[in-house]
Write a structure and sequence with these properties.
about 40% helix; 3-stranded antiparallel beta sheet; single chain; mainly alpha
């Protein structure tokens, strides 16, 4: 909440300290940077214990843990192509985030040096590739970006981009919600860029983008570089609920007019009905 004393003790600026925290990640999604809201947003994404790469620690002149190691989606060290360890290799105990006395690079349980732990090599190139993409996403989200001052607008574009890509893959919001194990309300919150969240955590964003075979970094970049094409859509809004995020094509009328189905309010409609259909409906 305050970097005042840390800037004095660490002899560095607030701008230097913030990338060592979850600050910039929360800002990118337009969320509060206070501890409890950030904790709720990161629920299910970060480990409750320290995770580490022994080779990285061995190479460091000053031992330190990397913040991306905290994220459970990052399962490998991309630099050394080895699996991250989630416990001390010597005693098998998990390493607490905070314990006194705290010794960097040393297991607080058995006092053995963590850089001497055996390395677990990767099993398949596909796993390493997935971990590499996850690592790039996390680093991007933790790194300060010049557009963060406009993050409220950006996260809405990100939502529209995900909605657009979903429609391009001919998927409904209901289908995506069911397949990634979240409620329709969460999908609605993501696609509308709802700052209240609608229950959408960072893990929900990862699941949604992953289901569409997209990286979050690419989604953000596309939303920033080409916001106009993100909002563009050929599907008309539903006349009942006045939105088009959940509208899909639903065949044709006998007269040849295109029909649409809204999966949000479950109404079918014709965007531009022909005159004779309007007369028939009114009669």
């Amino acid at each position: 909440m305050s970097f005042d004393q840390l800037t004095i003790v660490g002899a560095c600026s607030e701008e230097t300290l913030r990338p060592t925290t979850f600050f910039h990640l929360a800002v990118k999604f337009g969320r509060s940077t206070l501890p409890q809201p950030v904790s709720r947003f990161l629920c299910g994404c970060v480990g409750q214990y320290l995770r580490y790469c022994p080779v990285c620690i061995a190479e460091q002149r000053v031992s330190h843990y990397l913040l991306p190691w905290r994220f459970l989606t990052v399962t490998y060290c991309c630099k050394h192509k080895c699996r991250l360890l989630e416990a001390c290799w010597h005693c098998g105990e998990w390493i607490p985030l905070f314990i006194a006395p705290f010794a960097l690079g040393c297991c607080p349980r058995c006092r053995h040096d963590l850089k001497l732990c055996a390395v677990a090599s990767h099993e398949a190139e596909t796993e390493l590739e997935i971990a590499s993409h996850a690592h790039d996403d996390i680093v991007f989200l933790l790194t300060p970006q010049p557009w963060e001052a406009d993050s409220v607008s950006v996260i809405k574009r990100v939502g529209r981009r995900l909605s657009y890509m979903r429609q391009m893959q001919r998927l409904t919001a209901v289908e995506v919600a069911s397949q990634i194990g979240v409620s329709l309300t969460v999908i609605e919150g993501i696609e509308r860029g709802d700052l209240l969240g609608r229950g959408a955590t960072l893990l929900c964003y990862f699941k949604y983008a992953g289901h569409l075979c997209l990286d979050l970094k690419a989604v953000f970049s596309d939303a920033i570089d080409a916001p106009d094409c993100v909002s563009a859509t050929t599907l008309p809004p539903c006349p009942t609920c006045q939105q088009n995020d959940y509208v899909t094509r639903y065949g044709y009328n006998r007269s040849g007019s295109r029909r649409y189905l809204c999966h949000y309010c479950h109404r079918s409609f014709t965007a531009s009905p022909k005159v004779r259909e309007v007369k028939r409906l009114s009669s």
